[in-house]
């Protein structure tokens, strides 16, 4: 009788499993079919290249194809909204930069909450920004730039930016240094390169990946980086902290997010897989090619990083350091 009763309980338990939502049933074997990674920006950029490199490694490690799809528009909002509205079943994710959290403090009527409407999965890469100067400019480093700017008419010196991150770095630098620089926003770093190398611009902000190819031409010099320590890619370039501006630090990132309410078991497995792929020699070489650093961390550390970012951008918005969209 006891055996029969246990059998009935087992059948009941099995029945409950069959009635469970698909996302719950699939957790133990995730992924069981192709996974879609939506890049919220145009093809060919740093986020796209990083995502495709990671997708290749994840496909090999997890045995299912990770398909990359670009859905660009509105500073990452179009692709992010599509994923926020998708089912939390572990088969649709978005890859974005740190502007994902910044948007909360820049964009009126944002159609989602970057903190509440997503499940953070992993940071794939991190990178500082750099301040580049034309080599013919009448200054060669941060001290001489500050000294020169203080002798010039207000607004005479322009600094080029290409996105929200570089706009923040530019505004923060000018405020901390106590100088007046005119921000000139361009549509992407490629748009200002000709003006910078040609001498029409004296200053421009960009990523390490943007700066590195320019250095061999002899027309551009990196005069500072925004990381707390010197970049391994630019070991001869000082940090803004070294230059006496400790508040001028910024590290951007490229991350993966799923929709809210994603089962934590899937999030943890995905997080671990990203860390494992990041440690492989082939992915390490791709990081070097893209002039970025791997950024493995567990879900708890990632959540803390995002909370810190959110607090930082809230403060920056109050101080008028973020562009309004």
From TrEMBL:
Residues 1-26 form the signal peptide. Gene3D superfamilies: Bordetella uptake gene, domain 1, Periplasmic binding protein-like II. SUPFAM superfamilies: Periplasmic binding protein-like II. Keywords: Receptor, Signal. InterPro entries: BUG, Bug_dom1. It comes from the Bacteria. Belongs to the UPF0065 (bug) family. This is Tripartite-type tricarboxylate transporter, receptor component TctC. It comes from Belnapia rosea. The lineage of its organism: Bacteria, Pseudomonadati, Pseudomonadota, Alphaproteobacteria, Acetobacterales.
């Amino acid at each position: 009788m006891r055996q029969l009763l246990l059998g009935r309980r087992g059948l009941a338990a099995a029945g409950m499993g069959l009635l469970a939502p698909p996302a719950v049933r699939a957790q133990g074997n995730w992924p069981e079919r192709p996974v879609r990674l939506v890049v919220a920006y145009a093809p060919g950029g740093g986020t796209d290249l990083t995502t495709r490199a990671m997708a290749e490694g994840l496909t090999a490690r997890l045995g299912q194809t990770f398909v990359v799809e670009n859905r660009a528009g509105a500073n990452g909002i179009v692709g992010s909204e599509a994923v926020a509205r998708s089912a939390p079943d572990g088969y649709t994710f978005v890859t974005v930069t740190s502007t994902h959290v910044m948007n909360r403090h820049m964009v009126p009527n944002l159609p989602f909450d970057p903190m509440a409407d997503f499940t953070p999965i992993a940071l794939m890469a991190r990178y500082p920004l750099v301040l580049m100067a034309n080599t013919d400019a009448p200054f060669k480093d941060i001290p001489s730039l500050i000294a020169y700017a203080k002798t010039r008419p207000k607004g005479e010196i322009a600094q080029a930016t290409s996105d929200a991150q570089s706009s923040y770095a530019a505004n923060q630098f000018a405020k901390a240094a106590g100088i007046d620089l005119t921000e000139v926003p361009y549509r992407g770093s490629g748009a200002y390169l000709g003006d910078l190398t040609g001498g029409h611009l004296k200053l421009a902000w960009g990523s390490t990946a943007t700066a590195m190819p320019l250095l061999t031409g002899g027309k551009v010099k990196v005069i500072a980086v925004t990381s707390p320590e010197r970049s391994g890619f630019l070991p001869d370039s000082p940090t803004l902290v070294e230059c006496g501006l400790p508040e001028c630090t910024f590290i951007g990132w490229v991350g993966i997010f799923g929709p809210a309410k994603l089962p934590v078991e899937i999030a943890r497995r995905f997080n671990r897989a990203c860390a494992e792929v990041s440690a492989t020699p082939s992915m390490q070489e791709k990081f070097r090619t893209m002039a970025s650093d791997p950024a493995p961390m567990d879900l708890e550390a990632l959540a803390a990083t995002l909370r810190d970012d959110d607090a930082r951008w809230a403060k920056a918005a109050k101080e008028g350091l973020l562009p309004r969209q």
